[in-house]
């Protein structure tokens, strides 16, 4: 769970930026440009925050196990390696207390991001080996002159998240896919390999060798520029 809205300021030096979607159609969560708190005050997700839920459709990895692990990965590790708090808390991630599929449709529609676990997402992600993010319900932001998305859904395979306690592999997948939610894209060639959770050794076939499993300075710089983007 996120801490108070402006509790942390991450030092972000100039660095090579990771690659992002740009132009008219920008695949990022629509709430990334702003931050606020609950209308009534107090602690909780505001309308510009990113609320997420977790659900599992495989009995081999129940939500009671993977839900807290995803939450820890996104918000509860050292501040310099978690997505939560990025771009001066314009990325403010709050876990919904129930599994996504335990909510009514109306309540579920208030949650911006879903983490979904299955044995395979071949039918959604284009092949059995892949995890992926889908962007749903495009919104035109006339002020910022681009289109972004009301909902982003992260599809992760159980196998990618196995061995939770013993390796950083599961966190590598969770953080990479969350990078997509925030507007970062995959490398298209080896020339784009850098020290980034988006261009790490998940792209060994392109020649990328970084083993990093968490967002890096390059990633934070890019997410800040996406949050600032007005084109
Ligand atoms: Zn946008
Ligand atoms: Zn990717």
Automatic annotation (TrEMBL):
MF (Gene Ontology): metallopeptidase activity
InterPro entries named in the record: MetalloPept_cat_dom_sf
Name this protein carries in UniProt: Uncharacterized protein
Organism: Pyxidicoccus fallax
Organism phylogeny: Bacteria, Pseudomonadati, Myxococcota, Myxococcia, Myxococcales
């Amino acid at each position: 769970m996120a801490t108070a809205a402006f509790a942390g300021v991450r030092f972000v030096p100039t660095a090579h930026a990771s690659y992002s979607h740009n132009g008219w159609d920008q695949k990022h969560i629509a709430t990334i440009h702003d931050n606020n708190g609950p209308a009534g005050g107090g602690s909780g997700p505001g309308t510009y925050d990113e609320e997420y839920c977790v659900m599992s459709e495989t009995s081999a990895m129940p939500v009671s196990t993977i839900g807290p692990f995803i939450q820890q990965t996104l918000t509860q590790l050292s501040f310099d390696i978690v997505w939560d708090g990025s771009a001066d808390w314009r990325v403010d991630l709050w876990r919904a207390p129930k599994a996504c599929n335990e909510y009514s449709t109306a309540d579920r529609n208030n949650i911006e991001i879903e983490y979904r676990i299955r044995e395979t997402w071949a039918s959604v992600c284009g092949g059995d080996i892949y995890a992926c993010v889908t962007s749903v319900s495009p919104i035109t932001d006339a002020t910022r002159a681009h289109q972004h998305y009301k909902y982003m859904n992260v599809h992760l395979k159980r196998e990618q998240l196995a061995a939770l306690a013993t390796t950083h592999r599961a966190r590598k997948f969770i953080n990479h896919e969350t990078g997509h939610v925030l507007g970062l894209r995959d490398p298209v060639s080896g020339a784009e390999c850098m020290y980034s959770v988006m261009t790490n050794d998940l792209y060994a076939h392109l020649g990328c060798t970084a083993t990093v499993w968490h967002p890096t300075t390059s990633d934070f710089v890019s997410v800040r520029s996406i949050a600032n983007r007005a084109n």
